[in-house]
């Protein structure tokens, strides 16, 4: 049943099966902004996702290390989807146990994917509640969008939970989208504003730095009912794309564009990956609601495991608090990231717009890392501002730039030298160690301008749009341009960039050494998180791209 699954709905994370039960046996907390509508009727249809345990995850991780390390003889020798499938496919026993369990409840309407590690099954609410004792499905609404979720934890039989990582479509509700428009009256009418021409000037791209090969492509993924309008893209390019060859249309939309107004987030992503990665074929993965019980981020990950031909660079401006997600769920998502990386796909995630974040635990506060920004298997992009907001100057920290240290994932080997050097160099000025995990995966990896962008949305030019949602597609577009040049030389795609990026030791990037980002507003840290420093730091990573220099070092295979 290797059918292509094209799914939809707002991005959520699911709870995990844990020793027969969910990770928590307490009631599921429904955020106040989600209004309860009604109890789901017994005959209403739900669609749940079953993540089957995979084999050889440790071998997958080692393969990713080898194909991503420029010092390895296997560097760039990426796997096909079929090779990935043969490596991680669930065991025959796992498939047998899970299928038998579902069939014993009369559930037969299921689809699988090429890697056979996900099952997507349709059933009635009554059947789902029998299958997963404890679950109770209700409908909730926020901002006109409806979701079906269980308000209570569920369990599965002991002989089944060993074969599942999680069941998707039960609990996690999508966080509220960020307001990316910062209308700052003190700057209005005077600030330079960031446009494609400004970015090309700052990062030293010329009019000749555009795509030219046929086998190159890039993509953005959109969640939370975010859509772009083709007319906005066309108008944006007419206004801002005059200095370089470009495309004014997206080549492929995977999913179905919803109706209604264009979203600022979606407009920003498409307009800036296509103006930086200019003249390169661009795809949009979009997720309107097909089933109220679906989880769009999960559906996007499933698509990546089911499509043999994919764009080489994907940028995603989305995340959630690490502490709101189960460790088992995030660990499985990391495996999905590894599956993409070994195929030569570069995944870039925005670092978030809350600085170091803050979690209030009684009388104690800690910083609050974000996922997938904290994943060791993606490249995370932070944000900067111009030192002088009235002209193209050097960059300083954007105070919203997300960054910090994971509380779940250990620091990967590729970054230990750089991060430990930072911790040692700035030890005297670091926040108290109770606020962060010094041995966790540190992020971001690099950065770009994230402050005061011009965007066209709903046919209107909109100024003052800010966030790492802006910097991420800009970096993604530049990596697509570098892939273009690599393909012209017969070289493989960059793939998972981090091992190579950290071996550059800051070469070919503009080091950002000024400014701090937000932290907890309390007596100890007084609203400040981490600060930029020479070389790598947890606010801007290694800094921002000097495109011609970065191109040169990444072409030197």
Explained architecture:
The protein is 26% helix and 23% strand. With 557 residues, the chain is α+β, with helices and mostly antiparallel strands. The chain folds into two domains: 22-54 and 90-168, no CATH class; 196-541 and 549-555, Peptidase S8/S53 domain (Rossmann fold, 3-Layer(aba) Sandwich). The strands form ten sheets. Strands 10, 11, 12, 13, 15, 19, 20 and 23 form an eight-stranded mixed beta sheet that branches. Strands 5-6-4-9 form a four-stranded antiparallel beta sheet. The protein has a three-stranded antiparallel beta sheet with strand order 3-7-8, with no helix packed on it. Helix 1 (57-68) packs across helix 10, helix 7 (230-240) packs across helix 8 (264-276) and helix 9 (296-304) packs parallel to helix 10 (327-341). The longest helix has 21 residues, at 468-488. The radius of gyration is 23 Å and the shape is globular. Residues 193-557 form the Peptidase S53 domain. This is Tripeptidyl-peptidase 1. The active site is at 265 (charge relay system), 269 (charge relay system), 469 (charge relay system). It holds the Pfam family Pro-kuma_activ. Keywords: Autocatalytic cleavage, Calcium, Disulfide bond, Glycoprotein, Hydrolase, Lysosome, Metal-binding, Protease, Serine protease, Signal, Zymogen.
């Amino acid at each position: 049943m290797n059918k292509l699954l094209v799914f939809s709905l707002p991005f959520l994370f699911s709870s995990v099966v844990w020793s027969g039960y969910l990770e928590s046996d307490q009631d599921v907390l429904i955020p106040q902004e989600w209004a309860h509508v009604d109890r789901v009727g017994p005959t209403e249809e739900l669609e749940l996702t079953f993540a089957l345990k995979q084999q050889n995850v440790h071998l997958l991780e080692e393969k990713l290390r080898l194909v991503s390390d420029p010092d390895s003889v296997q560097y760039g020798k990426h796997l096909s989807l079929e090779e990935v499938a043969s490596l991680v496919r669930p065991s025959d026993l796992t498939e047998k146990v899970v299928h038998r369990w579902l069939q014993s409840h009369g559930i037969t309407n299921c689809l699988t994917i090429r890697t056979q590690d996900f099952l997507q099954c349709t059933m009635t609410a009554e059947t789902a509640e029998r299958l997963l004792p404890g679950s109770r499905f209700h409908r909730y609404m926020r901002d006109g969008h409806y979701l079906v979720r269980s308000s209570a934890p569920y369990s599965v039989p002991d002989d089944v939970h060993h074969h599942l990582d999680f069941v998707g479509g039960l609990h996690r509700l999508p966080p509220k989208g960020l307001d990316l428009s910062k209308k700052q009256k003190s700057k209005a009418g005077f600030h330079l504003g960031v446009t494609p021409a400004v970015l090309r000037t700052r990062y030293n791209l010329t009019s000749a730095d555009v795509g030219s090969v046929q086998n190159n492509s890039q993509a953005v993924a959109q969640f939370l009912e975010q859509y772009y309008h083709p007319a906005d893209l066309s108008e944006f390019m007419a206004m801002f794309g005059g200095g370089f060859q470009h495309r004014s249309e997206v080549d492929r939309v995977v999913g179905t564009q919803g109706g209604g107004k264009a979203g600022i987030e979606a407009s920003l992503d498409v307009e800036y990956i296509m103006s930086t990665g200019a003249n390169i074929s661009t795809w949009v993965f979009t997720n309107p609601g097909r089933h109220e019980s679906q989880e769009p981020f999960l559906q996007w990950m499933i698509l990546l495991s089911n499509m043999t031909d994919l764009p080489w660079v994907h940028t995603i401006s989305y995340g959630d608090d690490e502490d709101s997600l189960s460790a088992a769920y995030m660990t499985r998502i990391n495996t999905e990231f590894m599956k993409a990386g070994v195929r030569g796909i570069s995944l870039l995630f925005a670092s978030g717009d809350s600085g170091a974040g803050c979690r209030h635990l009684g009388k104690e506060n800690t910083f609050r890392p974000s996922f997938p920004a904290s994943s060791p298997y993606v490249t995370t992009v932070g944000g900067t501002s111009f030192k002088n907001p009235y002209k193209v100057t050097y960059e300083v920290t954007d105070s919203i730039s997300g960054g910090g240290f994971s509380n779940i994932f250990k620091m990967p080997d590729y970054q230990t030298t750089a991060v430990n050097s930072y911790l040692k160099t700035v030890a005297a000025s670091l926040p108290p160690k109770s606020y962060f995990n010094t041995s966790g995966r540190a992020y971001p990896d690099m950065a770009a301008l994230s402050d005061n962008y011009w965007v066209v949305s709903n046919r209107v030019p909109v100024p003052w749009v800010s966030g790492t949602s802006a910097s991420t597609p800009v970096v993604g577009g530049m990596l697509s341009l570098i892939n273009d040049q690599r393909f012209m030389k017969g070289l493989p795609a960059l793939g998972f960039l981090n091992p190579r990026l950290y071996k550059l030791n800051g070469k070919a990037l503009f080091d950002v050494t000024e400014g701090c980002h937000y932290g907890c507003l309390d007596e100890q840290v007084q609203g400040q998180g981490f600060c930029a420093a020479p070389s790598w730091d947890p606010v801007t990573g290694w800094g921002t791209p000097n495109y011609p220099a970065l191109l040169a070092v990444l072409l030197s295979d």
